[in-house]
Amino acid sequence: MISTILGAFRVREIRNKVLFTALMLGLYRLGSYIPAPGISRTAVAAIQKNFGGSSILGLLNTFSGGGLGRIALFALGIMPYITSSIIMQLLTAVVPSLEKLQKEGEVGQARITQYTRYLTVGLAFAQSIGYVFLFRSFETSVGETLIPGFNLAKVFLIVISLTAGTVLLMWMGELITQRGIGNGISLMIFASIVSRIPGGIQAWWNNPDPTFKVLMPFIVFGVVAAVVFVTTGERRIPIQYAKRVIGRRMTMGGQTYLPLRVNMAGVIPVIFAASVMAIPPTLGQLIGQNRNGFWEDLYNFFAPGSWHYVVGECLLIIVFTYFYTAITFNPVDQAENLRKSGGFIPGVRPGRPTAEFLDRILARLTLPGALFLAAIAALPTILIDQTNANFAFGGTSILIVIGVALDTMRQLEAQLMMRNYEGFLK
């Protein structure tokens, strides 16, 4: 890894891409500290205690690099764009017109990207309104006024500012993808999570429990090793291509493989599950301000960190993992593409038997991947319950950081190989 990074700085073109990416990420981090207009700084400092690491607000605050807790211009982060991308990806598999657009190549993909941008603006606008009233509901508990002189004009100003911040981040992410080292959106979330590492190290060092101090580094290294092992794990299905006659030429057959990853869904099931599980306690907090009767029971039953929350989140993660894997990988289409290109799996007939074979293998791979995601998501809550210590990072954050780091290193290695390849003869 170190040799890859050093090699990237030796090539001028790659070095310029890395520096451009660093500049964009630096501007992103700067915007996470610029306060939104019309917000009381004193109230923000008092409200920040509601952004615990085990709550949905704590998760969203981590993804925004602390911008949500500061109610900064980039408070929403890039999450509205990610949510829009996921929604459009799900709709593409359901709506025939969008599926037709996806198969039209670059033109259709550009159209879907434009729809994603429009949906991002709408989601950012709606989330901004919700956050304004959610933060204002904390005024009673902290005894501070968040928006002095609260009126429609001030609410509109704050909402427009937060929405414009999300649109600017979306543009910066696309710039990183086009002119930087790629994966602009993922690198922004990566920078947000990594920026909180110093605070996490300080919390670990200042913890009064000596057992926690000793065991925590081993737990972290163990989790990182397990995430790397599962993230890079794959089942390679051998593919054999037969000889074909094209015109007057005969193409030689060859052998390759089809990689099926153990964790094909990535962290999307965890994000989906956390979003769904956040709905009941959020309703209990917003509608039942005094938390009496039904709303108190609803909030306590689904409170983040409770065992009911952990069990529900794990079950939803398993369901969403199967659901998203079925959407992203279609065995019927894969079998049809293999048949058209003259490829086949040794010992399996082309067509429907190949699709059934791939579906059976994928179902067996998805189960351990889903159980692993559920275990990683539930691990911080279990450790907090056993040690009474606050963790700065959850399992979702670790999954994202490691996944983005591995993918970025692969891209750097590929670009270095393209520019430094000398062939068999020197």
SS strand fraction: 5-15%
Broad structural category: mainly alpha
Within CATH, the superfamily of the largest domain carries the name SecY subunit domain
Low-confidence stretches: 422-426
Can you tell me the overall shape?
Answer: globular
Cross-sheet strand order for the largest sheet? 4-1-5
CATH class of the largest domain: Mainly Alpha
Mean pLDDT: 79
E-strand count = 5
The CATH architecture of the largest domain can be given as: Orthogonal Bundle
How many helices? The count is 20
Short key terms for the protein model shown above:
Preprotein translocase SecY subunit, 20 helices, mainly alpha
In short:
The chain has 426 residues and is mainly alpha-helical. It contains 20 helices and five strands.
Question: What would you note in describing this structure?
Answer:
With 426 residues, the chain is mainly alpha-helical. It has 2 domains: 1-196, Orthogonal Bundle (Preprotein translocase SecY subunit); 207-392, SecY subunit domain (Preprotein translocase SecY subunit). It has 20 helices and 5 strands. It has helices at 2-10, 12-31, 41-47, 56-63, 67-70, 79-94, 96-102, 106-136, 139-142, 152-179, 184-194, 197-205, 210-232, 268-277, 279-286, 294-301, 307-328, 331-340, 352-387, 395-420; strands spanning 234-241, 244-246, 249-251, 255-261, 343-344. Strands 4-1-5 form a 3-stranded antiparallel sheet. The chain has a two-stranded antiparallel ribbon with strand order 2-3.
